[in-house]
Amino acid sequence: MFMNVDIISDTICPWCFVGKRRFERALRERPDVQAEVRWRTFQLNPEMPAEGMDRSDYVNQKFGGEEQAHAVYGNIRGVGQVEGIPFDFSAIRRTPNTVDSHRLIRWAGSAGLQDAVVERLFERYFTQGADIGSQEELIDVARHVGMDADLVSDLFERGEDIELVRKEDEAARAMGVNAVPCFVFAKKYVVFGAQEADAFNELFDHMAREAQSEAGEFEAANSEA
Prior knowledge:
Helix content: 55-70%
Number of helices: 9
Shape: globular
CATH architecture: 3-Layer(aba) Sandwich
CATH class: Alpha Beta
Number of strands: 6
CATH topology: Glutaredoxin
Structural class: alpha+beta
Strand content: 5-15%
Largest sheet: 4 strands, mixed
């Protein structure tokens, strides 16, 4: 069974990293499912200054203090351990504006390297504390996965696709997406959140049954004709 999957996410969303792992596990468990994945833009902080902001200031604004943040991130770290993600939130010094990282993901699509770029961005930010709002860091990510780093540098310099990325974020919100990750299958079925692999497998079963039913109805209609 082949399907297109649009994954709406943000590059600084830890649950998006968890969701990626769980979705990948679901696909490994279902060799009968072939998925063409496209990563789509969402910004958790659309009003973030272009230069980002100090992590401590961000945490205080978002959670009301270090104590509350510690509890939230402690839970995520525990989930990460189960999924093989060594989250290191203490290494993060800046919370970035993610427009440029989404621009890079968009460009990676034409090279068939979106998934590799998303994976590298998640790893660099969540396990090494890299500033993925820095264009130098993003160019290094591009080089690491095999993209043309000089071309990426030129695209950044020319300001390519900034508005397209912002419009994609706006389109997701217009669809009713207000939290990520959000998985859209065949432009028809939606799974919100970092669901366990079983949730994806249940959807795959439903889609397979529906495809069989539609095929049967088509054959019946043709035989009657």
